[in-house]
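WARN retry 2 of 3 for item q-0093 after timeout on previous attempt; input resubmitted unchanged.
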Amino acid sequence: MQLILIAGIIIAIGAVMFALQNNSPVIVTLAMWSFEGSLALVLLVALGLGALIAGLLSSPAVIRGQWTTGRLRSRVADLERQLAQTQQRGRELDAELARASSLDASPAPVKEKPYVGLRTLLAGTPPDATPQLEPPREGDADK
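OK item q-0093 returned
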């Protein structure tokens, strides 16, 4: 802000010096309109009108840029809020996973069921009973 003020003061000093050195009268005529004034005054009025017209023509672009900037800043704020919520949810899930894995570090071993074959089913013995092997009889080896 101070830099703009200093630049404005320097331009004003330059304009005053220009006006003091160019004080000869000139006549400006445009169609039926005629104006007589010093050369410096005519040039400064022309410069001022040019700056005013340039400012008016560029103001829609400036306003549009400010509107876009505001909209994008609010979008960034929304996305940052969503990111924070997602990160918080991720930390909660990590903590829950760590808690669950510490409670159930190793699963209980699964007891295998005994094999139930056709002979066991036909004999009617319970599947938990271990079959007793009979010693070989005479003549079994010959068969």
